[in-house]
Amino acid sequence: MRAVLMAGGSGTRLRPLTCDLPKPMVPILNRPIAEHILNLLTRHDITEVIATVHYLPDVMRDYFQDGKDFGVQMTYAVEEEQPLGTAGCVKNVEDLLDDTFVVISGDAITDFDLKEAIAFHREKGSKATLVLKHVPNPIEFGVVITDEQQRIVRFLEKPSASEIFSDTVNTGTYILEPEVLQYLPQNQECDFSKDLFPTLLDKGEPLYGYIAEAYWCDVGHLEAYREAQYDALNRKVQMTYPYEERESGVWVGQNSFIDDSVKIKAPVLIGENCRIGPRTNIEPGTVIGDNVTIGADADLKRPIIWNGAIIGDEVHLRACTICRGTRVDRRAHILEGAVVGPLSTIGEEAQISPGVRIWPSKKVESGAILNMNLIWGQTARRNLFGQRGVSGLANIDITPEFAVKLGAAYGSSLKQGEQVVVSRDQRSISRMVSRSLIAGIMSVGVNVQNLQATAIPLSRSFARASRNGMTSRPTIAGGIHVRIHPDRSDSILIEFFDANGINITKSKEKKIEGAYFKEDLRRAQIAEIGDMTYPSQVLEMYSTGFEKLLNVEAIRHSNSKIVIDYAYAVSGAILPMLLAKFGSDAVVLNASLNQMALANEERETLLTQLGQVVEALRANFGAQVSANGEQFILVDESGLPIRAEQLTAFMVNMILTAHPRGTVVVPVHTSSAVEQIARRHDGQVIRTKANPTALMEACHTNPNVVLGGSGEMGFIFPQLHPGFDAMFSIAKLIEMETLQGRSLGQIRAELPRVYHRCQTIRCPWTAKGALMRHMVETHSADRIELTDGVKVCEPQSDNWVLVLPDAGEPVVHIFANGDDRDWVDQILLDYRSRIQKFVEQQQGGQNLPLDEI
Q1: The 3-state secondary structure of 365-417, one letter per residue
Q2: What are phi and psi of 156, to 5 degrees?
Q3: How far is CA 684 from the centre of its chain?
Q4: Angle between helical axes of 574-581 and 538-548 (0-180°, round to 10)
Q5: In angstroms, rounded to a whole number, what is the distance separating the alpha carbons of residues 734 and 619?
Q6: How many angstroms separate the CA atoms of 300 and 285, rounded?
Q7: What does the alpha-carbon distance between residue 180 and residue 598 come to, in Å, rounded to a whole number?
Q8: Cβ–Cβ < 8 Å for 590, 565
Q9: For a Cys staple, 368 with which of 109, 348, 382, 611, CB 3.0–4.6 Å?
């Protein structure tokens, strides 16, 4: 007799187990469900099997091949273009079925007596016999009613609760005569329960139900998957166990080493070639696959571990599923019902909360607490905050549900009833994320003043004005700005600032992270839900502060013409409108928001075009504005760009010329040109950590600061507001160019000549601290500065080298600065070699990929 094994399903409700496996190939007791079905068929002398496959067909074909090793003859029928349904796939192999045949589902564990069911079929003279089963909860199955002769009189596929008329369900196992297939259309999707069986009833064909008393579990969802494993271990179903039973209820495969101190409580199944370390505790219900390594002192309470997994020391696994090739590092906890997809990594001391699903090839960082499914992004992080806020791939890492929870965590760090300001750039993705944040903030009883689409300098300025009593509105406790990431056009950046408009402190970030990861979220009563208002005259308030800090008469009489390129990244409405008030002519390029945010290469093309326009129009200068109004690149009257370190020196020179003896604040890695310029003007230079918050705080707390920032981050004018502001910078340049009577090209020619280079080298997180200690220990104390990283200074000169660990990536940056090109090149080479050698030693002599990025 032949059997048709229906193996076409993708197992959507079993995800992430079935992301790279068809459902019949999901393992039960370390063997695919389909193999257990073949064993059932051979026990009942059914040795010719036709497998109908659609989803990932090669997985099944590669495993079973011709079936000889499993005691059957296997034939495969692949549904190439589209799934044909349960009946359509059988109709597709009609020419191979010339006698009574069995159809059996590929996603169930059972020990039905098929010989008895076939005998029943023949005794009744049935054309189609359904194997039925009494179940406690029939709502997920097709419900069937039979008469006294067990002839089927009624059935209903997957009824609602009010439609249930029986506890007898269709198990998806049928004994059929070939002639019933004539009622099915050729090459069309059709189903046994919806199409064939109702037709047979209408035609009066003999249709019977055989009620089986044996075990049956439809492995249709994750809970049923675990239940089938535990039932099999407890011998509730008759099946062939793949390994020797060494003692009652303990099956162990060949070549597995189990330390003598391991405690095992039956029933437990352990695969082949496993290594289980000392003092590990293995509780009843645990299933361990082939080639699994388990460290010392692990605690396993009913996990299902697939082949090739690596479980570290002191790991706790609780009724979870760990898929193929996954690594779970030391002291991690994976709790009840969680599923970790194939080839994933769970970091040290990470915790996966109950019921969480992790899709294949994901990474959960050390110490992270994951309490939501990890599907689209690559990594679950220990920290939400990076160098300048919370960032991630748009609508993949930063999703609406993520933003709602983040907003609630932020609001929970504030007092109920406080006010926060929320703003965003003009992109639709930013609007979606900001609305989700607002919903979360309001849910914990915090009020929102929604500035909607606004450049971030206006948001910071509004918060500060509220704090200083410059508006009639309630005092702002802090704020959030959402925008496309300045450096990645596919990512979102969410920045948080305090009541002064300064990015929040690390301690505040930790408080928000704690609320987020621990789900320690305040929930307001209905009457306490936050309100949302839309402040008016925000631009007028900003314009007033803007005007007070400029020599408006100088700008008005300058007759200057400038060209502003917004590179499709920020609204062009604000700055030209302000400049028009002062009689300055501003030509705007690429202000449309219909185009997606640009990649760096595309912005470079626009910068070249900007230079050509400036030269053609004989403009005073041009500026390409980015980062929602924070950063810019200058183009002089000849069309040549001024950027990065040169832009920093340029701005410092112009400001200190206008404000001698002033103080400027720059990050630690800025070139020594700023010191040389400060000496010319009797000024002072303060260097800070290389992050935006440190720059803002230093500008806010130190007196006499006239400028802060850098060409990479933007520039701060602390009298206006504490953030970076490209718009005010450009207006200030018009003023100073006019008052100083020099073109940008002339000012550039006066800048000190300093050689400043940077290289980036890979360095694992675990080696960074040791590398910094090594740098400190191998240099004399009077030569090093520890503002940020380790800076080694040459005596009596401005020459130095800085080794700076990256805050967000497993790399370190080497900055070299000096007045001699050869010295700079040589010092970079020397320190690169030192760091590579040290990292290799830390990693046990392995050859790491330490190429320059």
Answers
A1: CCCCEECCCECCCCEECCCCEECCEEEEEECCCECHHHHHHHHHHHHHCCCCC
A2: -145, 125
A3: 43
A4: 50
A5: 12
A6: 9
A7: 61
A8: yes
A9: 382
Q: Position of tokens 């070939």? A: 178
Residue 531 DSSP class:
P
Which tokens in the block code for residue 668? 């630690």
Beta bridge partners of 168: 134
> Nearest 10 degrees: CA dihedral of 38, 42, 45, 48?
40
What number is the average pLDDT over the span 89-100?
93
CB 348 within 8 A of CB 332: yes
Handedness of CA 554, 556, 561, 563 (dihedral sign): positive
pLDDT at 851 exceeding the cut of 50: no
Tell me the three state secondary structure of residue 231: helix
Neighbours of 537 (CB within 10 A): 10
Listed residue (46, 189, 174) closest to 105, CA to CA? 174
* Contacts of residue 204, Cβ cutoff 8 Å, sequence gap at least 6: none
User: What are the pLDDT digits (tens) for 112-126?
Assistant: 999 999 999 999 999
pLDDT at 7: 83
DSSP string, 734-761: HHHHHHHT--HHHHHHTS---EEEEEEE
Taking residues 421-447, what's their average pLDDT? Answer: 95
Give me the mean pLDDT over the 773-801 stretch.
91
Q: Are 566 and 632 in contact (CB under 8 A)?
A: no
Residue 267: asked if its preceding bond is cis (omega within 30°), the reply is yes
Positive or negative: CA dihedral 132, 134, 140, 143: positive
Residues paired with residue 2 on neighbouring β-strands, in sequence order: 48, 101
CA-to-CA distance for 247 and 705, rounded, in angstroms?
79
Cα→Cα distances 372→209, 359, 385, 469, Å: 44, 12, 18, 42
pTM of the model: 0.70
- What is the secondary structure of 723-738 as a DSSP string? SB-HHHHHHHHHHHHH
Residue 193 pLDDT class (50, 70, 90 cuts): confident
Alpha-carbon gap, residue 281 to 296, rounded angstroms: 9
The backbone torsions φ and ψ at residue 462, rounded to the nearest 5 degrees and listed phi first, read -65, -45
336 vs 285: CA distance, rounded Å: 13
Vertex 686, ends 720 and 790: CA angle to 5°?
Answer: 130
Nearest-angstrom CA–CA distance, 429 and 438: 14
In sequence order, the β-bridge partners of residue 790 are 803
- 674's CB contacts (< 8 A; 6+ apart) are 648, 649, 652, 664, 666, 685
Average pLDDT (4-28) is 86
